[in-house]
Amino acid sequence: MEKIIKMKILRALILTLSFIIPISSFAAGNSDQKIPKHEWSFTGLTGTFDKSAIQRGYKVYREVCSGCHSMNLLYYRDLIDIGFSEDQIKAIASDYTVIDGPNDEGEMFERSAKPADRFVSPYANDQEARISNNGSYPPDLSVIVKARKNGADYLYNLLLGYDEPPQGFELSEGMYYNKWYEGHQIAMAQPLDDEYVDYDDGTENTLPQLAEDVVTFLAWSAEPELEVRKNMGIKVILFFLITGLLFYLMKVRLWKDVS
Amino acid sequence: MQNSSEPKKYKNSFLNWIEYRLPIVSYIEKEYGDYPMPKNCNYFWSFGALASIILVILIVSGIFLAMNYTPHTDMAFNSVERIMRDVSYGWLLRYLHSNGAAFFFIVVYIHMLRSMYYGSYKYPRELNWILGVFIFLLMMATSFLGYVLPWGQMSYWGATVITNLFSAIPLIGEGLKTWILGDYTVGNATLNRFFALHYVLPFVILGVVGLHVAAVHVHGSNNPAGIDIKSKDDTVKFFPYMLVKDTFMVCVFGVVISAIIFFGPNLMAEVDNYIPADPLVTPSHIVANWYLAPFYAILRAIPDKLGGVILMFGAIAILFILPWLDSSKTRSCNYRPIYKWFMMLFFVNFFVLGYVGMMPAEGIYLLIARIGLVYYFAFFLIITPLIGKYEKPGHLPASIRDVYIDGKNY
Ligand code: HEM
User: Fold this and answer.
1) Of the candidates A79, A220, B267, B406, which lies 20 to 30 Å from A214 by C-alpha distance?
2) What's the rounded Cα separation, in Å, for the pair B100 and B66?
C-alpha cells in the first residue's frame, strides 16, 4: 500500500514538474549563441550580495553610466541597504540638483537633492535623451537585470563584448559592434575599459572587474529584496516539509484501519 | 439566550442557537464532516481542494495589491515596482499573486485532465463539468485582464493582439473592439476598465466554484474506478480521512510553489514585461501567457484571422458538450483499453500545442500546430463518439471497496 502511495506522490510531482521545466527552458530563450555563465555571489539557494562589490559598482554607475542612463526607481536613501551611512548618503545626494516648487511666490526653484529624492536623471526628458545619443534611447537601468534574458550574465558579457566587426559585417553610421547584442549593432559606444574608474578600496580596476561590479550593483537594484526573499524561502519550505511529513504520518496511521 | 423549547442538537449552546436560526452548522457537518468520499480516490482528487485554496490566496493577495496599484498608463508600471520595493513585503504579495495565477492554471489543468481520464464529466455530473468549463473561461478572462495591469511591453502588446481578434468578427467587429477598449487603441480607458473587471471577476469565479462544489456533493465524487458508491463500505468520511490527505497534498504543493516564489519568482514571467509599455516599439515576438499557449497555437495555426478566432473559441466551447459526445457508459479510462491511449495522446498533444504556442508561428512549429489542431478536434468530434460505440469495455470491479483492497487506486 505505502509503496503505491509513494509512487503516486512521485508521479504527481513529476507531472507538476513536467509543467514547470519546459517553461523555464522557454524563459531561457533561443539566441543563436549561448551566453557564457559567470560566477555571481548572489545566485544559488543561499546566494547573498557582496556589499563592497555593490558599492564599487555604484561608483562605476555614478561615474560612467549615469552620464546617459537614468535609474529612476531608486532613491538616494536606498543606498543605506548597500552599506552607506546616512551622512555619506546626504553628501552623495547633495552633489545633484533637482527642480522643486512651486514656492510661495509661485516660482519653480533649484535645490540640491536630498536622500528622499529619486536618482537624478541625466536628461530632462526622453527627447533630450534621444537627441544626445544619435536618436537611440539609453534605457533606464533600475530593473534592467530583470528585463533581459539571462539577466546578469547577459549584461556582463555585453559590457565585455565589444570587438572589431568581422569581415564583411556592415556596420551602420554611429553604431558599434557587440558580440552579444541582438543584431550585433549597438548604439552605445563601449562604456567601460581597464582603469576607467579608480577604486578607493584598492581593488584592481580591470575591465572584467569593473563590469562584474557594476552588474552586481544593477542586480541589487533590480532585486533589492533578494536576500530577505531567499531567507524567508528556506523557512517557508522547511515549514511545509515538516508539516507535510507530520500529515503524511498522520495519514498513514489513520488510513491503516481503513479496509 | 436559547429558548428552552429549541432543540439541543449540539453540546455548545451557541451552535444550537445558530443552528435553529440558520442550519449552517449541520450543513458544514454534512458537507465537510460526514461527506462520504470513495476510499479509492487518489491524490488527483486533492486538486479541487488545492484550486480552492489558490483562489482564496489570489483574492486576498490581489486585494492588498490593489490598495497600492495605480491604474493609469503613466503610473501603472512604476506603481507595481513601488509595491515590490517600498511596500512592506510587497514583493511577496506580487510574486504570490503572479506565480499563484500560473499555478492556478497548472492545478486546474491537472484537475480537468483528471476529470477527463476518469470520466467524471459523465452522467450524473454533467452540470458539474459545465460549471467547471465556465470557471475555466472566467479564469482565462481574468488572467488576461490581470496580465495587462503592470503595463509592461507584453501587457500592452498582448492586449493589443487579443483585442484585435474581435475586429475579425464581420460587421460589428470594429465597433465591438472600440467598445471594449473604450478608445481606438489600447490606452488609459482600457487600463481602467480592465482593472475594474479584473477586480470583480474573481468574485464571480468564487460564486461559480460554490455552485460547482455544491454540485459535486449532490451525487458524490467520482473515483478512479468510475463506478458508483453502493454502500458505506465503499467510502470514508471527509473528516478526518480526506482532510488529512488533502492537507498533506497542500504541503507538497506548498513546497513546489515556494521553491518558485522564493527562488525563481520570474521563471514563469516574460522579461519584456519589465520594460515599460511603449506603443512605438513592437517586441520581437509577442507571446501569450504560457498557460493559454495551447489556445494561442490554435489561433495562429489558421491563416485566416476570423477562422482562427472561431477555432480558438470552438476549442473551449467544445468542452461544454463533451458529456454528450462521449458515447461510452464506462467512466474510467482504466476500463477502456482503446480510448485510454487516445486520451493519453490527447494530453501529450495538448502539451505540444502549448509548446508551439510559445514559439514563432512559422516553419516546423506552424506545421506541428496544424497537426495538433486537427487531433484536438478529431479527438472530440470523431474519436470520442466512435470509440465508445465499438470498444469493448473491460470488466468493471464489483465494488469500490474491492478496488481499494486490491490497492489499484490509480
Ligand atoms: C477555480 C477553479 C476550480 C475549483 C476551485 C474547483 C474545485 C473543485 C472541487 C473542490 C471539487 C471536488 C474535489 C475534487 O474532485 O477534486 C471539484 C470537482 C470537480 N471539478 Fe472542479 N474546480 C475548479 C475548476 C474546474 C474546471 C475548470 C473543471 C472542468 C472543466 C472542473 C471539473 C470538475 C469535475 C468534473 C469535478 C468532479 C470530479 C469528481 O467528482 O471526480 N473543475 N472541483
Assistant:
1) B267
2) 16
User: What would the DSSP string read from start to end of B266-319?
Assistant: TTTS-GGGGSB--TT---SS----GGGHHHHHHHHHSSSHHHHHHHHHHHHHHH
Closest Cβ opposite residue B252 in set A24, A182, A244? A244
State how far the Cα of B377 lies from the Cα of A251, in Å rounded to an integer: 42
Contact A159, A153 (CB under 8 A): no
Architecture of domain B37-218+230-285: Up-down Bundle (1.20)
CB contact under 8 A, A258 and B404: yes
Name the domain count of chain A. Answer: 1
How many angstroms is it from B60 CA to the middle of ligand 1?
21
CATH at A147 = 1.10.760.10
Residue A113 lies in a domain: no
3-state SS class at B23? coil
pLDDT tens per residue across span B175-205: 999 999 999 999 999 999 999 999 999 999 9
Cβ within 8 Å, pair A73-B410: no
CA–CA distances in Å: residue A103 to residues A95, A98, A111:
22, 14, 12
Show me where the domains of chain B are located: 37-218+230-285, 288-320+337-392
Domain presence at residue A112? no
Q: Which domain holds residue A250?
A: 2-74+118-255
